[in-house]
Structures are given as structure tokens and as C-alpha cells.
Amino acid sequence: MTATSAKKVAFITMMIVLGNVFSGISIYLGPIYPGVNLDFSHITTFIAAIYGGPVYGFIVGFFGGVWAGFYFGFIGGTLSWLSLLGLPVGKSLTGLATGLFYRIFRIREKSHASLITVPTILVSFIPETLFTVIYFLALAPYFFAFGFGMFMLGIILPKAWAEIVFMSFLMAALVGNQGFSTFVTSFLSTRATRTA
User: Fold this and answer.
1) Are strands 31-33 and 36-37 parallel, antiparallel or unpaired?
2) Domain that residue 42 falls in
3) CATH code for position 21
4) Does residue 193 register a pLDDT over 60?
5) What percent of the chain has pLDDT over 70?
6) Does residue 12 fall inside a structural domain?
7) Is 132 contained in some domain?
8) 49 in a domain, yes or no?
9) Of 20, 47, 89, 146, which cross-links 67 as Cys (Cβ 3.0–4.6 Å)?
10) pLDDT tens string 92-105
11) What pLDDT score was predicted for residue 145?
12) Tally of domains within the chain
């Protein structure tokens, strides 16, 4: 394994660990309703996707969502194994979409990349939103009481969108910070302007 490859693996691992740490802290500090808590694991999903690309975003989104899936499935929720699988899948879609938008439209190369980051992240959350709707309206009814999915969806989606709006502005600030961008890209490439 080359030094560059080792740094990329270290970056992905660090983002996954931090994602689960952010998730654990925010879940603990932000209860909203039984089985519904704040979850800021997507901070590292967005960092990985913006600077590393869609594959990095997908991987970090999935594995960075493991603690949330475990918590809402077995500790503070009621969906058991369904959450353990469903939450990471949904989060991986956001990472994939963010990375794709950033790469296709070359957003990091634009002069106002930080301003474009906010709407990009909001649009990137739409696939996870659609997956969440399907998850609660098509999958959950097979395992839980009728109406449970619709009820939970009415609480979870507004909460999730509020989190994403907050994180979109946070990421805009980070993207606009040259020191942060230089630090992150140093893990991913020998050339600071190139994404993996």
C-alpha cells in the first residue's frame, strides 16, 4: 500500500469513526420524542463526499450511520434489525448524491463554492428523503402496527430536514475555509485540487 493510499484509508476510517461519535453525542444530547433524536453523523458524510467524491460519501454515509441504526433499532427505538439496515442505507444515498453533484458540476472549482454548497446539500438529501418515505410507508407496516410509519414519518422528516439545513450552512463555512480544505485534501491526493 502506498503512502497516499494509506492516507486515504486513514481518512475514510477517521470520517466513519467521527460520524458515529457525532451521532452518539447528538443522539444523547438531543432527544425530541421517544425514538426520535438529533443525529449529526452526516457532517462527516458531507466532508467525505465533497472532498473525496461519491464513493467516499457512500462508504462514510453507510458505516457512519451504523451507531444510529443500532441505537434506533435496539436501544432507543422499536424497529430492531430494520433500522440497523435502513438508516445506513439512507445515509449512504445522501453521501453518494452529494459526491456526484460536487463531481459532475465541479463545485469545488467554482469561485463561490461555499454559497453553492447550501443548495447542493439540500438537493442531495432528497434521495434519502424518498428512501425514508418508502421505508416507513412500505416496509415498516409489514412489521409494526398500521399507522406507525405515517406517525413516525411526520416527526422524523421535519427533524431531519432541520438538521440538513443546519449542516448545509456548516459545510458552506467549512468549504469556504481554505485552511480546512487544504487539510482535508492533503489526505486524499498529492495534488490539492484533485478529488479521489
Assistant:
1) antiparallel
2) 3-188
3) 1.10.1760.20
4) no
5) 92
6) yes
7) yes
8) yes
9) 20
10) 999 999 999 999 99
11) 62
12) 1
